[in-house]
Amino acid sequence: xxxxxxxxxxxxxxxxxxxxxxxxEKVELFKQASLQEILTxxxxxxxxxxxxxxxxxxDALTDGYGxxxxxxxxxxxxxxYDMNGSYLRSLGGKGEGPGEFQSITxxxxxxxxxxxxxxxxxxxxxxxxxxxxxYDMYRFKTGRNIINQIILLSDNRIAFPxxxxxxxxxxYSLTNEVIxxxxxxxxxxxxxxxxxxxxxxxxxxxxxxxxxxxGIIYVPLHYGGIMHLYEETQSGxxxxxxxxxxxxxxxxxxxxxxxxxxxxxxxHLSGINxxxxxxxxxxxxxxxxxxxxxxxxxxxxxxxxEAGDEMHLVVEYFNIETMELQAYFIIDDLNIPFFxxxxxxxxxxxxxxxIADHSEWPALxxxxxx
Length: 370
Hints:
- By secondary structure, the chain is mainly β.
- The protein has helices at residues 3-12, 186-189, 195-203; strands at residues 30-31, 35-42, 59-62, 68-72, 77-81, 87-92, 104-109, 115-119, 124-128, 134-139, 151-152, 157-164, 167-173, 178-185, 207-210, 215-219, 226-232, 238-245, 254-259, 269-272, 279-284, 286-293, 298-307, 310-319, 325-337, 342-347, 353-357, 363-369.
- The protein has a five-stranded mixed sheet with strand order 1-25-24-23-22, with no helix packed on it.
- The N and C termini lie far apart (43 Å).
- Mean pLDDT is 87; it is low at 1-27.
């Protein structure tokens, strides 16, 4: 098992958990809930309407018109559907020419409903119009690094998580093709001082979210109930404003097992020990799948936590002005096994949650909390 192989595999099929949690939630914020399926895209071996057969769903989002766009890494394409699930078009395909891709690792949309598709192997960001035409392309000068997420900021800037010189989040100017600022000290968000934790974050640095008023929230991938809010001053400097506390703290959210064998019964990820002989096995107890803004003045955080031999989806709602936790749901009816075949990839502004289903016939499922 080599680390590069692990990195490629996990950038296509995120994350596996199991372990122990310490429950510190406020009981009055807990709400009973279940998920109801509203729409399914895919899930068939031969769709009757001629739409694409999905090999996998890596990422997905909705635009301002309610159209659904999903990334299929098997074909290096972005497939688009209307709000009712009717197929519209496919963008891309394997290649290096304009509009082609080698490895799509991030998908986002702007206020003009333009799609931004980032390819880590090509270090290229391609912008498509709502009709699927190429609007612009940007080459990144960040070295041979895999960037797993980008978010859009003002003034033709983006932000992305990646460890560079001990900083975790970087503000990049598309106009000047340069990193303008780097924020979030790596040590400040480690749950332990272990070198293994820092080494893990080099490959999986977490998630970022733009608040819409100039702020950036950073969430570690191994989520322990704490998020970190940074704000930009009028002079262009960035500072940490506060820590945002979720419904629980898990200590730790990630456990390491060192063995001489290349397997471990509690391992979700394994590799060669970078600091000695033998192997290191990573056991996830809680994993963040990102933050999403809602129309009702809240943002929602989606994560998994262990629950015996299953994983449960945790949905937390925060007031976007005060950053206080308002309510949370624990969804236990997805029947997610120890090695998960389902993961959340998007929550739209109307409150619908999109689940990538990697069972026998991959699908994207639009679901509503009841």
